[in-house]
Amino acid sequence: MVRTPKTKEVINSRLLKNYASWIYCTSCNKTVAYLCYVTYDTFAFEYTCNCGNKGKVHIEFDRNVDVEKSDIPLIEAKNRLCCPKDKSPLVTFVNKNLIDYKCRIICKGCSTEYSV
Question: Binning pLDDT at 50, 70 and 90, where does residue 38 land?
Answer without folding.
Answer: confident
